[in-house]
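Quiz preparation item.
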């Protein structure tokens, strides 16, 4: 018998937050919500037409034990890290970064006349992967496949799959799906889900509703976490609905979180703090070419 569609269980309007060196953003969820979104830790939405809100950026800072996923909708974010990667994350590009045992990086939004906006999602690593070798996928917009249907739906597949199309980000421990879905005005749209996985959606713009027991409208900026069940069924309002669809396998492991470092217990946080003080935090750097 087919499972009934998943219902919205919790709604998060987003909280204005000052982050980095003074970036104004909206935080959808974070450490107070642990473990509701397991394996996802945090979702920030940045974006403003006023450069003063973002130019301070996120200067050099460490991460350990997580993956950070930056998706730029509009504008440009300059980045650099201790693996030797550097460049620009431009409109429609995604950076999927696995901090593993440790990375120090910066993320600096550039002045843009057309506005600047995007997302950062933090994905937890299983305990056995937290001290792994850092890895980095930089994907430009044209490397992210888009599936379109006769009904006018458009789905960009970053990770996981939609229909027969698989996203370019593969081999992530929590088996995530990360889609950017556009449903035309008054359109309906159904996405299958994996039983037992955590599933949430963030309305980017427009409005709509989801099947289930809470059918109240979901508007741009709102994040909704679904309960257990079968597919997620969206119904777009009169101006259409664009949303992020994110799914992943829960880890069900203890979470010890201090700022940009997320481990399993407090002693690992103390070790990270000591290593940062002693200059022993970075275990893997780009290979040094000796002359
Ligand atoms: Mn960062």
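Solution:
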């Amino acid at each position: 018998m087919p499972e009934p569609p998943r219902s919205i269980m919790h709604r998060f309007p987003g909280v204005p937050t000052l982050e980095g060196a003074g970036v104004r953003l909206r935080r959808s969820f974070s450490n107070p919500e642990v473990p509701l979104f397991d394996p996802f830790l945090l979702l920030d939405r940045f974006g403003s037409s006023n450069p003063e809100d973002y130019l301070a950026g996120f200067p050099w800072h460490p991460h350990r034990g997580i993956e950070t996923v930056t998706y730029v909708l509009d504008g440009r974010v300059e980045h650099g890290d201790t693996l030797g990667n550097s460049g620009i994350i431009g409109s429609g590009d995604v950076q999927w970064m696995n901090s593993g045992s440790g990375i120090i990086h910066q993320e600096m939004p550039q002045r843009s006349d057309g506005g600047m906006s995007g997302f950062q999602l933090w994905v937890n690593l299983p305990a056995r992967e937290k001290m792994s070798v850092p890895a980095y996928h930089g994907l430009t917009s044209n490397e992210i496949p888009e599936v379109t249907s006769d009904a006018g739906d458009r789905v960009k597949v970053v990770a996981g799959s939609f229909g027969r199309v698989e996203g370019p980000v593969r081999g992530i421990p929590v088996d995530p799906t990360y889609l950017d879905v556009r449903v035309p005005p008054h359109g309906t749209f159904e996405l299958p889900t994996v039983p037992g996985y955590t599933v949430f959606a963030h309305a980017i713009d427009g409005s709509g509703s989801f099947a289930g027991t809470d059918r109240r409208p979901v508007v741009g900026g709102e994040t909704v976490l679904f309960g257990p069940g079968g597919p997620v069924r969206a119904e777009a309002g009169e101006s259409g609905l664009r949303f992020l669809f994110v799914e992943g396998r829960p880890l069900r492991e203890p979470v010890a979180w201090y700022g940009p470092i997320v481990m399993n217990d407090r002693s690992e946080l103390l070790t990270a703090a000591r290593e940062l003080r002693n200059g022993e935090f970075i275990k893997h750097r780009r290979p040094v070419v000796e002359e």
